[in-house]
Design brief:
The chain has 339 residues and is an alpha+beta fold. 21% of the residues lie in helices and 34% in strands. It folds into three domains: 9-119, Elongation Factor Tu (Ef-tu), domain 3 (Beta Barrel); 135-247, 3-Layer(aba) Sandwich (Rossmann fold); 259-337, Beta-grasp domain (Ubiquitin-like (UB roll), Roll), CATH 3.10.20. The chain has helices spanning 14-24, 103-109, 144-156, 174-183, 194-197, 203-209, 224-236, 276-282, and strands at residues 33-44, 47-54, 68-75, 78-90, 93-99, 116-119, 135-140, 162-168, 187-193, 217-222, 243-247, 259-263, 268-272, 300-305, 308-310, 316-317, 322-325, 329-331, 335-337. The protein is globular, with a radius of gyration of 22 Å. It binds FE2/S2 (inorganic) cluster.
């Protein structure tokens, strides 16, 4: 009897196929998005613009303004992933804004043109509302990269009114925003040089610039201080449901007491005095993660018991068997995790 060959696609391993394809050409992959570095440009001493040419796996049709991609770099043999805002993207070109603040973003500055990186598809929920209702955009520092692409989308969507408040020291995209304000009369641009004026976000400042701010869909991205201020202002004005935020620097409560954490399946105990992700890493563990800022869901896992605090929203989670993200959760009591 002759042996019959049956095609069984589920038996073909993606990593093996990618290994073969990559050995033919570094941009080739079955499903993964590989990209070639086309340009690395300093926008300011703290900000870099990275331009990439993605392979055919990148789905530009799903990209929305305000989203980001996870960029993977191998540094000293270890894979690192970080999330960066998309400034512009189409099928042939992705432009990312990178703030120099850690190992990966510093390595990005040194990427040679013509080298290859891996990225994810676009992701994130920091996107513009549908329709033409007026919007307010508030940015500080590197938060301007996500806000700038939302402002351009707001112009495309012909929102009835667009106000942009930008607190900055180094004026990245300042000239571009000035030019947009000249071309589109519905766009009011409020530029604040914080070095010259010392001005920061307060309710009085907001009322002066945009008196009806509490009735606007509002998008904010920037420093921890600014994000805390706007969160408080919108809470105090019963407008928190209109505030959409994107955080770049999740901050742990440094005064909180360290708590014992137990990873149930791997039978690992450690003390957590930072986020659960950082504390696990400090204990030598390697939980799966991506963006490290609560966007990509890679680190989502089940909290079996105990109380954690979401450091982005301040919300406490007392429930048993609830889903938490390790990268933005801090233990408030002893915690058991199903990992
Ligand atoms: S690592 Fe992306 S959500 Fe936690």
């Amino acid at each position: 009897m002759t042996a019959q060959f049956k095609y069984k696609p589920h038996l073909i391993r993606e990593d093996f196929v990618d290994f073969v394809l990559e050995s033919i050409h570094p941009m080739w992959a079955w499903k993964r998005v590989k990209a070639m570095v086309k340009e690395v440009k300093a926008l300011s001493p703290e900000m870099t613009q990275l331009t990439l040419k993605p392979n055919h796996n990148f789905d530009a049709s799903t990209v929305k303004a305000g989203q980001c991609v996870l960029l993977t770099l191998v540094i000293n043999g270890v894979r690192h992933q970080r999330s960066y805002s998309i400034i512009e993207a189409d099928a042939n070109r992705i432009v990312l804004g990178i703030k120099a603040q850690g190992l990966v973003s510093r390595a990005v500055k040194d990427l040679p043109v013509g080298s290859y990186v891996e990225i994810s598809q676009a992701q994130g929920n920091f996107t513009l509302h549908e329709g033409r209702d007026a919007a307010l955009f508030v940015a500080s520092g590197s938060g301007i990269t996500a806000i700038y692409s939302l402002v351009k989308q707001a112009i495309v969507q012909e929102l009835k009114a667009i106000d942009v408040i930008y607190f900055t020291r180094d004026d990245v995209f300042h000239v571009e925003l000035e030019q947009l304000a000249k071309r589109f009369p519905q766009l009011n641009y409020h530029h604040v040089n914080t070095t010259e004026t010392g001005q920061h976000l307060t309710q009085a400042f907001l009322e002066e610039k945009v008196p009806e701010f509490a009735s606007r869909e509002t998008y904010a991205c920037g420093s921890v201080g600014m994000m805390r201020a706007i969160d408080l202002i919108y809470h105090n004005n019963q407008a928190i449901q209109r505030l959409h935020t994107e955080f770049f620097q999740p901050q742990v409560d440094e005064d909180a007491t360290a708590q014992p954490v137990f990873f149930q399946r791997s039978q690992q105990n450690f003390e957590a005095d930072s986020t659960l992700l950082v504390s696990a890493e400090n204990a030598g563990l390697r939980p799966a993660h991506g963006c490290r800022m609560g966007i990509c869901n890679t680190c989502t896992c089940t909290k079996v018991s105990g109380t954690t605090k979401n450091i982005l929203t301040g919300e406490l989670d007392h429930g048993n068997n609830t889903q938490i993200k390790l990268c933005v959760s801090q233990a408030v009591t002893p915690v058991v995790i199903n990992l």
